[in-house]
Structures are given as C-alpha cells and as structure tokens.
Sequence to fold (772 residues):
Amino acid sequence: MNAATRGILIVGWWLVLAALAAFVSAHIKISGDLRSFMPPAQTDDQKLLMDEIGNGPASQLLLVAIGGASEEKLAALSTSLTESLKDDANFGRVINGADADMQLDTSLLPYRYLLSPTLDTNRFDTKFLHDELSERVADVASPAADFLDDLLPRDPTMEVLKLAQRWMPAKAPAVRDGVWFSPRGEALLLVQTTGAAFNPGAQTAAIADLISKFGALPDVGVAQLTISGPGYFGAKLAATTRREAERLSAIGTLGFLVLLFVAYRSVVVIVLVGLPLASGALAGLAAIALAFGDVHGITLAFGFTLLGVAQEYPIRVFSHRQSAVPIHESVAAVWPLLRLAVVSACIAYLAFFFSGVPGLQQLAVFTIVGLLVAGMATRWGLPPLLPTQFRDAATLPFIERVRAWIVAVPRPRAMPWIVLIVAIAAIALAPTPLWQNDLSALTPISPDELQREGELRDALGAPDIRYLLVLEADSADGVLALSERVAPKVDALVASHAVDDVELPSRYLPSAATQLARQQKLPVRATLSASLDEAMRDTPFQPNTFAPFLDDVEKARTLPPLTADAFAKSPFGARLQAMLTQRGHRWFGLATFSGVHDAHAIETFASGDSNVHVLDLKASSESLVAQYRLRILQALGIALVLLAVAVAIALRNAKRAWHVIAPMSLATILVIAVLRVSGVSLSLFHLVAVTLAAGLGLHYALFFERPVDTLAEARRTLHGTLVCVISAVLVFGLLATSSLPVLRAIGLTVALGVAFHFCLSIQMARPRDDDR
Fold:
C-alpha cells in the first residue's frame, strides 16, 4: 500500500469517526443526577434518604441575600426579584417575608376556618366577635389600614393573617420595609428550585436564571447578590470539576502528544494513535445508549480517563516494530500479550458492572466495550496504515543505557516480602480511619463558604439538612393525623430549646377529622349574623359591612375537607407535597428541624412509636456507603481471582503467572499504604483509581515477564514500557495537582500506582535465569 492510499484511509477513518461523534452527540442524552453514583437503596429509610438528598424541601432551597446598598433600595430589589421569579418554571416557591406571599388562593379562602386553629379554642359567638372587632378598630387607625380595606369585610377575625403567622418560620428574620433582613443588614429570600438538588444541570440553569434576573432589575447599582445552599454547592462543584478536568486534560493531552513526537519522531504516529482511542470511545458511548438510554456526565469524565489504558495498545505496536520484519509479523508477535492485557482489564472492570449502581454499571460498559474495540482497532486497523519509514526503537542509544542500568539494579529476593510487611503495617497502624464515609469531605467547598451558608440558614430559619422526622401511615390523611398527634411532643421539644422549630405537615394542612371538627363549630348564618350584629353595636362599623364574611362562613360549613392535592393551589401547596411521599401502599411525612441545638434530644425524641422516627441523613448516607463499599470490595475480590485464573490459563505456567500477578498485587497494597501514611482515608474514587492503576500495572508486568530471544527485542519492550509509564504519570500526575478532592484522589492514586507497578515489575516480573 503506497503512502497516498494510506493517507486517504487515515483521513477517511477520522472522517467516519467525526460523523459518528456528531451523530452520537446529537442523539445521546446526558444525565446529571448524582444519585446515579449512589448505591441502590434497600430499606424505606434509605429510599427516603435518596429522595430527600435529591428532591427534599431542605435540599432544594437556595439561600439568597442582597447587600451593598441602603435598606430601602435592598427592600425594593427584594420585592422586584421575588415578583420576577414567581412565574419562572425553574422555581417552585419564592418568599421574602412579604405577607402577600402567605395568603391563600382566592378560591380557597373559605377554607381558612378549617385550616386555622382558632376554632380549636374559641367559638364565633358575640364575645369573641366583639373582641376581634375591637382589635380591628385599632387596626383601621394604624398604618396598615390600606391593607385592611379589602380584607376586613371578608375576614374580620383575620384568619388569613393568623395562617400567615402559623406558616412563617418560628425563627423568622426581622422584617423591615415589608421584607426579611439579616443581622448584617442584607435583604433575604428563600428560593425553592423545581429541579432536583442532585441534578447539577437543573441547579446551574436555575442559578443562572436567578443571577440574570437580578442583573436585569432596574437600579441594581452596587448591590450584590449572594447565593448559597446545597443546590448552589452542587452546581459549583460540577462547574469547577468540568473546568479543572478540561484544563488539566488539555495540558495532559499536549504533553502526551509531545512525548509521542519525542519517542517516535513522526507526526503520522500522533495522528494514528488517536484512532483506536476515538473508536473505542464512540463504541462505548453507543453501548451505553443501547443499554441505558442515556449517559451520566460523570461516566463520560471517568470513562475517558479509564479508557486511557487503551493508549498503550498502539504504543506497543509502534515500539515493537522491527525494521527487518513485516509489520503484520511484529504485531502478531505482541498480540497475545496485548490480547491478555485487554481481557484482564475488562475482567477487572466487571466488578463495577456487578455493583448494582447505575453510574458504575455505565462506567463498566463504557470502559469494557471501549477497551475491546480499541484493542481490535489496534490489532487489525492500524498495521496497514503504518508508514514504511520508521526508526527502530532498538537502535536508540539511550534505551540501551537505561536497559543496562535496570539490569544492574539489585534484586534481593526478600525485598518484595519486606515491602509487603512494611506496607501492611503502615495500613494497619495509620491513625486516620481506613474508609472515608462522609461524602461532604469529597467536596471542594471552602470553610468560608460553609460558614456563610450556616449564617444564612440561621438567619432565614431554613430547615436543617441533616435530620428528618419521619411519620408513617397508610394514607396521606393518616400522616396528617399522626402529625397532629405528635405536635404536643414537638412543642415540648421546642420549649426545651433542643431545636428552634419543627415543621410538621399538619402545620399547613390539618387532617380531615380536625377540619370536620372545626367545621362543626361554625354557626349557621342566622346565628352568626345575630352574634355579629350584637358585637358591632359599640363599634364604628356599618351594618352589612361583613356580608362577605357571612357568605364565607356559610360556604365553609358545607365544604368537603381540603386535601393535599387541592391545597396545592395555595402558595405553600408545593411545600406540603414535598413533605408527603408514597411508597407502595404506605405514606410517609417528612418533618424538618430548624436550629438543632441538642442532637441527642431529637435522636431519642421518637422512641416508643414504631410509626415515628428520626432519620439522620448523614448517618444513613454513611451506612449506605459502607454497605455499598463492601459489595464493591467483594466484586473486586472475585475479579482478582478471575484475573489470576485468566493470566494462568493464557501463560500456561503458574510461575510466569505469579511473576505477573504478584507485582500488580504488591504495588496496589503499596499505593494504599502510602495514602494511609499520608493521612488519606479511602473513598469510592480511590477504589476506581486503584483498579485503573492495576490494569496499567498488569500491562507492564506482562511485557517485562515476556521472554525475548534478542537484546534488540528487550530494548523495544523497554522503550514501549517507558513511553506508557511516562504518559500515564504525566496525565495522572497533573490530575494530582487539582484542587478538587475527587480529581486529586484519582490522579495521585494512579500516578503512584503506575510508578510502583513499573518498579516492582522490574524487580519481580523480569524472568530470572532459573525460571527459564
């Protein structure tokens, strides 16, 4: 095949890949729900946990502050921003302390007598009505008279305002100029997003919309917007991860290309090395689309990193070419080991497929299919495209010097055992916990940002994101009735200052039984009219002023109890719906805590009632992670056994198989030991990285163990291995410099693993004279 034909085929291959990439990018759906990388919930509490951290009312709240201007201007900006966000589909609720935001929908106003607790302790008799009207006389003379003009004829007892007060947080911020203000003098808002907190895409869109609408307000001037909360942190983490990954990947790719040019002095090689990688990546994406329908963003990020193992396949082809041997013979000579490396890596990643976690299953499918396709493309696609003119790696002077130095390195037989003992001792004696179960430790959120979030949460009286009071019943109304039953105990908990507030579902909607009991206390129209006339005698109110009030009470007497679905029309309907959830034939109510001061008191609060318990989201998530990690470790153990069997069968020699498996296993233990000595507790991402490093290390051990007949072939083996090692250390060493704990964990673990695998493969996998 002449050079022109090879060029056409290379360009054609790239064009086909570009077309496929365009098609895939246009049709594949990218998911952003981070719960895809959480272990599957097994118990009701764990299912509630997964719902709460993604869709729970506390997790979906954005805490917003506007500062940097006069109070009058900040109040105006708060009001304008609230109005601009109310009709935005990204937000389900926006409140800033204004009473207007607390009112019922007009069609639901008659229900106020069934919702308000007034009738629990009072009756609409002459004395009660007279006392209420006397207070209204004083109100009419106050600055609030304009507000009362429309409301007073329909609601002389001010049930709407009583409900507004009931629905306000117990520790509400100070109200100035009609809106909330913090102790810092900032206007405050609570914004509930419609998107899940664990969906960075939805949160990013909502936050961008919030910032955009604030910037579009008139007279913003020097006023500043501050946003905090779980959704904000999740969106910031996703953006920072993407930005750093792209930057470090760009630098790493450039370094890799320079390395290839230095190693092979050929631009064609650089063009060719990407073909198997791109082919494998597209095949992996197609497999995910067929198997799952969509692909998670993290799967893409990690998948392309794990697929970096495949870059070693074309490197081996380039380095093992012999000037006096046809290319197909050179490739055929190294293909058995390359094939074993591909199969072994796939076996290792099968552990993640059997984890039961959708995100890791996607990662396994992507990586396994990608490695298989990249291996086949290297074996059968690359050889015909290689240029006829090349530089044989065996002729490079520096390779012989490096080889001679390696041969001279002492290899004491006891050294691996000494390393093993020291490594195990380091792991066992490290003072920090072995496993990192706290997922918050993996986020790069600064202490200042966390402190600021705490200040805003405290100022707004926003719910605590750690504890939930879970109420269980056989129906939604049963949950509301149970909520009413525990209300006295909750009041005692608040009175003891263990918490500032507990937001029960029944605060917003009483049970049907309670509504009916209040309805029975409503007098008939004639009786109420007579009592009202008597109460009005010594007041300035004119006869028939309160006819709308009589109409509403009469209507309320015949209304069916208000349900949660009907209550959804009110401003707090979405809030109540978020507190009620159905699983199977059971219903659960989620009551939130605010201002937790005594964790022990709330943890023991529900003892003795099987239908009421406190859910510690932090403890539950840590327990879930621990259970899941055990499952992953079991799967990795099975994969290691299968890997050893595969290597032994392929090499047909137990001693040769030992020379491959032993350095890989010891290097993995040594990586864990170094991390532990450095004070690092291991997370899920360390397990993924250790698996990746083991796949790379197996490759080195296979080729160092490979018997060679000539010194020239030994040089080629060393050349290919050095290029592979340097490229891996370069790429993952860059990741180790990241400010993000996840990227840093992956980069540091793989970089250390590559270095240790290389050194130990030289020491242990190189065949000795007595092994031949």
